[in-house]
Recover the amino acids of this structure.
């Protein structure tokens, strides 16, 4: 296919796609006018039926909880895949140490220590960030947020430790067994929380806990525990992936620091 | 409200175009992170705070982070390969 044929082929396809695009846009509801029935039904019923004030979380973890279970499994599998692909056998890491050290020094690439201002700002943020992440996870059924968002926020706390230049602490946090166990336990907890509904004769992931008062932290039944499980899995997964990416750099730098 | 929405939509268009036309990957990732924040603002203005929060955590933090780490890893692997080839050449010459 030479250049000219290719251009004609592109032009014809582009015209066809543009035509389809225009007809699709013309059939869309006008901006800001929602016309599906489901959103209205959910907005009306959720607070009464589930005692949850954040409808989005109710949709994610209750009305279509099984989809979210699938999403979390996808996340779990991609984390495991990344770990398997990138994790180096410890022998390999040790072998390349000296070579890397000399290479870094040769190019004038000694590791600069972060400035005092960076250290104070980042380390000072770690505590509030952890509290904020826990808040987002725990209040997923009351206000915007939930396990996924809170999990990511929690996972950035160890990264701040890394940015502050405290490499040893970062390694101790991110390479800890609890990270890997947490990643597995988060998904397992979600799976197990679906079972009581079946045992009591209902559907998988059916709510069995008391619903409580709308607007209180302990309300909404199963959604809060499921959110906590999701938060654990997401934060542990993200920390594990970041660690496996930074592993090599970290080993070299820790050695160079000594 | 309509003015606000129009403004933020224009900003989304500008930042998205900027991300596409940035040719250097590292700069592109920084632009992508900024674009993620703008998109989060758009969702917030369209009264979807849940989606906005997800967008800010994933689109502005987690995704650029993964890109940055991958770029760093690719660069390091390339340097390692180059070094290995150089040392092999030296060995052959000797």
């Amino acid at each position: 296919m030479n250049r000219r044929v290719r251009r004609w082929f592109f032009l014809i396809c582009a015209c066809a796609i543009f035509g389809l695009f225009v007809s699709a846009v013309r059939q869309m509801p006008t901006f800001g006018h929602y016309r599906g029935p489901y959103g209205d039904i959910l907005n009306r019923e959720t607070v009464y039926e589930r005692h949850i004030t954040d409808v989005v979380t109710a949709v994610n973890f209750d009305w279509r909880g099984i989809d979210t279970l699938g999403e979390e499994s996808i996340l779990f599998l991609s984390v495991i895949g990344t770990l398997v692909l990138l994790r180096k056998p410890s022998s390999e890491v040790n072998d390349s140490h000296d070579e890397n050290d000399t290479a870094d020094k040769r190019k004038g690439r000694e590791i600069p220590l972060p400035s005092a201002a960076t250290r104070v700002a980042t380390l000072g943020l770690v505590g509030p960030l952890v509290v904020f992440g826990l808040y987002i996870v725990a209040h997923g059924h009351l206000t915007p947020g939930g396990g996924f968002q809170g999990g990511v926020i929690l996972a950035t706390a160890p990264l701040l430790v890394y940015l502050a230049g405290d490499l040893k602490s970062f390694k101790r946090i991110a390479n800890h067994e609890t990270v890997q166990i947490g990643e597995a336990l988060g998904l397992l907890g979600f799976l197990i929380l679906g079972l009581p509904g079946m045992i009591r004769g209902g559907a998988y992931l059916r709510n069995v806990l008391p619903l409580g008062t709308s607007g209180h932290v302990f309300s909404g039944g199963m959604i809060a525990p499921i959110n906590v499980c999701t938060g654990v899995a997401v934060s542990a997964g993200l920390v594990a992936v970041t660690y496996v990416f930074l592993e090599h750099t970290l080993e070299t730098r820790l050695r160079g620091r000594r | 409200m309509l003015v606000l929405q129009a403004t933020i939509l224009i900003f989304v268009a500008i930042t998205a175009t900027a991300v596409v036309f940035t040719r250097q990957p590292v700069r592109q990732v920084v632009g992508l992170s900024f674009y993620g924040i703008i998109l989060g603002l758009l969702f917030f203005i369209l009264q979807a705070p849940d989606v906005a929060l997800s967008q800010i955590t994933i689109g502005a933090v987690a995704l650029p982070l993964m890109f940055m780490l991958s770029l760093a890893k690719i660069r390091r692997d390339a340097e390692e390969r180059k070094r290995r080839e150089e040392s092999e050449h030296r060995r052959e010459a000797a």
